[in-house]
Amino acid sequence: MNTIGTVGVAGHGQVTLARVVRCEWIKLRTLRSIGLTLLAAVASVIGLGLILTGVTANRWSNMSAADRASLNPTQLSVGGYYLAVFVIGVLGVLVTSSEYSTGTIRATLSAVPKRLPVLGAKAAVFAAVTWVLMTAAALVAFLAGQAVLGDHGTTLGEPGVLRIVLGVGLNLTVTGLLSVGLGMLVRSTAGGIAAVFGLLLVMPAMADLLPASLANHINQYLPSNAAMALLEQHREAHTLAPWTGFAVFCLYAILALVGAALVLKRRDA
């Protein structure tokens, strides 16, 4: 589907960012696979959270005092975040890399010769959709999870709880932006997904192989660990402050998008 081609026709050939954004929105909402994948991300946040809280509530009477004391009902209810990270990561890569695999990127860039509005529109549309859906999913997961836990749960008014719940949507949005940038930078679905997983999974595992004194310093600045600082209710040793960690995570996404912009301007489609 070459909906982007309508940008140059509408309004007597004038290409505007608003029209490019509209075309990217049409692409996103008309591709069934993307819609189903987004629903899978929502389902993973809500469904896994309900499973985790349900199992915990069912086992409560058999849990030790130490296990009960260490339980974090907020993190338990939004535990589906960990699965959603990879769903959103894959989808973010596909938003950009799929046009290269099908060859439709040539038509897209012919309609928008300046090129950069294409990347900006893709990133903006995907970020907005991800933020709305994932924030809503996290709120539903939290409220439903606390209802399941009953007297063992918590409320949004407790210190750090609202930050964690909203942080799920924020972190997944930045994950999507990072993936969009890497997908455009690599121009390959397999390569982009490998790059996302390498940053989020492989790098922390490799850092753990280093001596503890060095690993403790490096780990906190790695993208997945920096992002997790926003989802911790209480700051632990060798971790960044919540909003500092989020800022570091945002920096990774910005670097990926800047790199993608440079590649998009300099390379042929």
Characteristics:
269 residues; mainly alpha; 74% helix; globular
Please give a structural write-up.
The chain has 269 residues and is mainly α. The protein is built from 12 helices and no strands.
Radius of gyration: 20 Å
* Range of helix content: over 70%
Number of helices: 12
Q: How many beta-strand elements?
A: 0
Overall geometry comes to globular
User: Strand share of the residues?
Assistant: under 5%
Task: Summarize the main sheet.
Answer: none
Structure class:
mainly alpha
Instruction: Detail the poorly predicted runs.
Output: 1-12
Our count of domains comes out at: 1
Question: Please, what is the average pLDDT?
Answer: 89
Termini separation (Å)? Answer: 17 Å
One letter per element, helices H and strands E, the order comes to: HHHHHHHHHHHH
Structure in a nutshell:
This protein is mainly α and 269 residues long.
Helices and strands in order:
Blueprint: H1 17-30, H2 32-59, H3 65-70, H4 73-77, H5 81-102, H6 105-111, H7 116-149, H8 161-186, H9 189-207, H10 212-219, H11 223-228, H12 242-266
